[in-house]
Amino acid sequence: MAFKERVFSGVQPTGNLHLGNYLGAIVKFVALQEHYDCIYCVVDLHAITVWQDPAELPRAIREVTAAFIACGVDPKKHIVFNQSQVAEHAELAWIFNCVARLGWLNRMTQFKEKAGKDRENASVGLYAYPTLMAADILVYRATHVPVGEDQKQHLELSRDIAQKFNNDFRASIHAHGHGEAFFPLPEPLIQGPATRVMSLRDGTKKMSKSDASDYSRINLTDDADAIAQKIRKAKTDPEPLPHEEKGLEQRPEADNLVGIYAALADTSRAQVLAQFGGAQFSVFKTALIDLLVGKLAPVNAEMRRLIADPTYIDHVLADGAARAQRIAAETMKAVKDIVGFVHR
Ligand code: ATP
Ligand code: MG
Which of 9, 25, 253, 298 pairs with 153 at a CA distance of 20 to 30 A? Predict the structure, then answer.
């Protein structure tokens, strides 16, 4: 059976949005709007898998919403909402908890990284994070999921869950008139030169909201001075830039900065090196700062304007949630029939 094409993705309200979120996810969200129906979610249920201060969380939810809109997501043509307003996400996640196997979740590297050494003390939610993510996507029967490279493993798990559900309930799916398969196997969209933006202090570590050093990342709320200072201080090596991509191997910091430039300029690493090969980092960094400030200053200004109007943001989220829920409720009704629950 052919599924209606639909895009779903989410961003957690867990702190400062950064250049990795922008290039790895949000820029892609914007581009996909042209050819797909898109659902973009502020995943607050995911955020609380690690402690969030209840006095801070609403601000963070509104900030991610503002970032989506400021970057060019259209909440009228598409759907923007926060996850906790559509209870069907959590409901389907429970069913998926009963489909997914412990052995599958035990392999998830994000859990291992986030739980760290004190695994016994991690929340059950942090462990079950990927089954909720599968539910987020599949409650809309979404077919395409733009994410950064770090989410590839979770997407593969979502596909495994969809596949096992389709197999386990094959007869019931068929009996209820849904053909051979109820859920599509969602495809990850992980493309371009910046699918994994690295820390500015350590080219072997992912740029992340949770890094203690603010110099490790460019925040979407950073002004021009902060951007310039962070790029000037960004770790590099003493060699000039190579002329060819092969010369970036074993040079993670150089590779990262060239990748960021390529993504911002909508070109390739090879093209950037054709222009800057042989240049010193001081020269390249100046060009990178200009490019970054040019792209991020308008986003920054628009975010500030939107954040100053929480009534508007809350209206966007409520309207998006109502439209999302209509789709999600329909899926859950069918899932209940398929599983064999008696319902109204
Ligand atoms: P946290 O540390 O709380 O997990 P995060 O920075 O990883 O925060 P998420 O909300 O988990 O942000 O992820 C939102 C989207 O941004 C996902 O699609 C994720 O793959 C992408 N993303 C996160 N970090 C990077 C990065 N460094 N480079 C490219 N994409 C990234
Ligand atoms: Mg993350």
Answer: 253
